Structure formats: C-alpha cells, structure tokens
Fold:
Amino acid sequence: MNRITKLFQEKPNNVLNIYFTAGFPNLNDTTTVLEALQASGADIAEIGMPYSDPVADGETIQQSNQVALDNGMSLKVLFQQLEGIRAKVSIPIILMGYINPVVQFGIENFCKKCQEVGVDGLILPDLPMDEYYEEYKPIFDQYGLLNIFLITPQTTESRIRRIDEISDGFIYMVSSASVTGGTSGITDTMEAYFNRVNAMNLRNPRLIGFGIKDNATFTKASQYAAGAIIGSQFIRVLQNSSDNTLYNDIVEYVKSVKG
Amino acid sequence: MTTLQQNYSVDKKGYYGKFGGAYIPEMLYPNVEELQQNYLDIIYQPEFQAEYHALLKDYVGRPTPLFYANRLSEKYQTNVYLKREDLCHTGAHKVNNTIGQILLAKKLGKQKIVAETGAGQHGVATATVCALMGLECIVYMGEIDIKRQAPNVARMKMLGAEVRPATSGSKTLKDATNEAMRHWINNPVDTHYIIGSVVGPHPYPDMVARFQAIISEEIRWQLLEKTGTENPDYVIACVGGGSNAAGAFYHYLDDPSVQLIAAEAGGHGINSGMSAATTFLGKMGVLHGSKSILMQTEDGQVVEPHSISAGLDYPGIGPMHAHLWDSGRAKFFAITDEESLTAGFELSKLEGIIPAIESAHALAVLPYLKAAANETVVINLSGRGDKDLDTYMKYL
Structure:
C-alpha cells in the first residue's frame, strides 16, 4: 500500500508534513534532513525540487531554491541522493515542484525514478487539473504515485469535489490566498473556510498549509484537519543552522512543533 | 475588431496547436477562470467596443499613420511602409492593450491594477490608463531595467504609479512578471493583472492579441488606400513576448500570401551565451502560465537572456508565436544588439524617426530580406526611441 494512504489510515490526526528544498542549505544535506525528520517524529517529508521561477512561493522558499540551484541541485542529482534512502527512512516522501523541470526530465522517466527510490506522492502546483487527468494520471497511477492538489478559500465547492474525486492521499488546504511564507496564523475567516470544507464529507483527508510555524499554529490547524504542513519556517530553521548542528536543530524544532 | 475563425487562433482550451494552456497554481485559478469565462462576452459588447474605440481615437491618437519611407525604400530597392505605433500616446503600441484591459477590469469590478514591465513602456501605458480611470497602480520592474530605463520610471511615478523593483533572479522582465503574479496571488479579489504581452495563462495571449489587432486592422485599409491592395508581401515586427507582432500579424494570419517575419533579440549573437533569441535557443517548456518555447537549461531551469533592449529581454515567446514558428507560418530572425543599433541610427538619419531599440530589431531585418522592387514591406514601428537615448548616445 502507498505509504501516504497507510499513514492516514493509521494516524487520522495531528499529521505533520515538513517541506524542505533539496540541496539547501548544502547540496548533500538531503539524507541528513530526511533522517532527522524521521527521528524527530515528522510524519511526511515533502522535498522541494528547486526551480528558477517559483511563482507560488514567497521570498524564503524562493531564496532556498536559488541557493539549491547554485549548489548544483537538479532532478538527476536528487534521484542519485535518494537511491537507497528507503533502507534508512520509512516515512512517506513527497516531491513538490513546478512542472517545467519535470517535463524536461520526461514524465515517464520521472515517475519511474520516483518509484525506484520510493517516492509516494507529488505536488505540482502549476499542473492544470484537466491536463493531469487526461495525460498524467495514468502514468502516475502506473508508478504508484499520488498527486496532491491544492485548494484555497476561493476554490469553489464543485471544484473541490472534482479534486476529491480524481486524487488520492490528501488534499493540501491552503489557509489563505497568498504565496508561501506568510505568518498570519489562523484567523476567524480561515476557521469558517476550514469548517465549510469539513462539512463536505470528502473522501480525502486534508492538511492545512501556509502560515503554520510552531506548536500553537500546528495544534490549532490540527483541530480543523488531519494535520498541517510547515514550509517556510522550516527553511528558516535550516538557514539559521550550521553544518555540525543541522541534525540536532531539526530534531529540536520538529519536537517543539509537536509539543 | 473582427473575430478570427481560422487555424492560427486559440482553441477552446486555450491552445495554439500544442502551445498555450493555463499552467497556474490553484491560488490564481478563480481569477483566471473568471477571465476565461467572461473576456469575449465583455469585450464584444457594443458599449465596450464604443468606449474602447473612442479612447483609441481621442486619447491614444489612432489611427496611427502608415508612412511610406521613401529614402529607406530607395536604399533597400523596395517599398517600405512604417506603421507608426511610436506615435501612440505614451510612445508605443502597449497602450492599445492597457486601454482594453482597464475597461475590462472596471467591468469586472476591480479597483486595483498590477502590471509587470521590461522597457517600461507597458508600465507607463498601464500607469497612464490607471490615472485616466482613477485606479490604483503597482508596477513591478526588474532592478536592472529600472537602471537602464530611468526616464520611464520617472514617468510612471509622475503618473501616480508605485514602481516596485524585482530583485530576484536576473532582475529583468521575467522576474518582474514573477513578482506581479505573486502580487496577484496575494491580492486576488480586488486586483486585476494587466499583462503587457501575449504571454501568460489563457486567455491573456488571446485577449492581448485581440486588443493589439487594431494595428493590422488599420494597416489593411491604409494600405488599400495607398496601394490599392490590403495585403503587403511582408509584415515585419520584433518579438520579445510578442504583443506588437501579434497585433501586426493578426489580420494576416490566414493569408499565406503575406509573409510574416519576426525579429528576435540575438544579443551578442545566438552562440554567444548572451542572447534572447528564443526560437533559436529554446525548446518546449512552461513559464508564466503557458506552454511555449522557452530558453532553459537541460534540467528545465529558465536561463537569463540578454538583449540590449529591455523590452525583448525575455526567455520565452507567446504561445501564438511558438505555434507560428512551429508551423512555419512565420519566419524568425535573430538580430544582434549591433545590427539593431545600426538600424536605429539608419532610420534616424534617413527618415528623421528615432525608433525604440526594440523596434530597431524589426528594421534590421531589411538587409536580409532582399525584397523585390515591386514588393511591399510593412514594418511595425512599435515604439519611439526617446527612452533609449542613453544607450544610443554611447554609440554616437
């Protein structure tokens, strides 16, 4: 069974998904970060595939993308780093990134590599739903990859239902209309939106992302969904860490979020 | 405006052949979908058309002249007409589109406008119509472009716009576009994004092309008046994203007797590593919401282009142009920085018209064209060169 599906069956609440950019802060930190995430109790590791033009991302993740590219990160390098990772890391792994590098790598080849190294799901924010359904889904299915869609407070009910119907794993519930890296926390308007989506009785569990940064925001978000996603704040932790404290800093931060 | 029913127009899903589409994050979906559903209905309403055409006439100064360039024609032993978009209010064709889009934004109930700009021409044209309509205006411009196009920055500020520097990536048009898209993601409800070229997610390429189509609509009747035929043998335009070319080509797309010629920015030469000649150096890819031809590394990272002209300094082209290139309907030339400067000085001296460096790329095709003495060439003179005087003066 796909590790994401299994996770939500076994743990329907307080799921913590942590995003980090591959190749940041250093090219070869990928394995260390993954091991530290697992050791500290993160439930899902979401690896960002760096891109030169990440339009849905705020400054923090943009800069981490640029540093990673300058460090020499590429899909080829990432897949090399992930070879054999399943001997050490058993939590679900998701690759997140923009569609262009994936298209250049070749969709089929990309999916094949994902399966070989043990990737469970994909988040491709600029892949249109119709193109996904018509062209990509059969290939993703063949290689056992779940495609995770985003929804926002402006996504209509019928579109949410369509997303729920054609995707598996979980739905990425963006807390507010913004790029990543905002620090607004969870407001009353967001609560109304979370409640509205909860009342829809969807097949797929939801994780809340954007604006989650610490135990308070994680705990609060987890009241309205199966759990939450932390991205920019984790990048800041990596940024402020140093080579010899990276592992411990990650463990300490993730534990503080879980409380 | 007339509607195209033929092969080179956009299909229902927003594609030109295999190029186009709407590759956008979910945060932009409601806004883009709202446009997709409504743009044609709104812009073809009689009152919209009346207002749009009245502003083009009385505010922009249309129709712009189609000028027979006597001395240039003599030099190249053919018949050269210049479509004088440089005489539009604000100094370039960009205002044709911003007039259309600001009227559309008002119909959609938006109170704020965001735009990107390269050379500053689209930024100025946007700031201008925002002042005219009393809407708040924010323009993103690459930090490097802010330095090389200082007069346009001053104009935008004087017109009441806020100019925000794009400091990421190559700090030019591509990055200004990223920042404008991020701004729109953060302000989806009250803001309309006026894209300045035939790029972006569907329906932008088609919408911008329709607003710029006034250029070829006028060329047809003006040429008929002057020569007795609507069709020239060649239409030449420069292509960065490709809005002026889209407008100049639009009504000729389905008439193969008219050769369409696009001048891309070759920079220091296509093999120099300092170029923006997308069709020579790019391959299929996705940027700024559409699938097109894109300059990129083997790993799919967008490369930083180079051109002496800020308006052509873009690593992609609009999906319509990608299709024209792919299908062979249009012929593409890569014009170097040096060739464009030479052409700019030549036009200044022969005809008393100082062209924008962008437009000078189109003029620089003439020596390669070898048009016959009885043939007719229309060159779209998309903008005037005042903004480029600092650059020109270095070569005086």
The first helix of chain A runs from residue 3 to 10. The domain at 14-149+213-253 of chain A is CATH 3.20.20.70 (TIM Barrel).
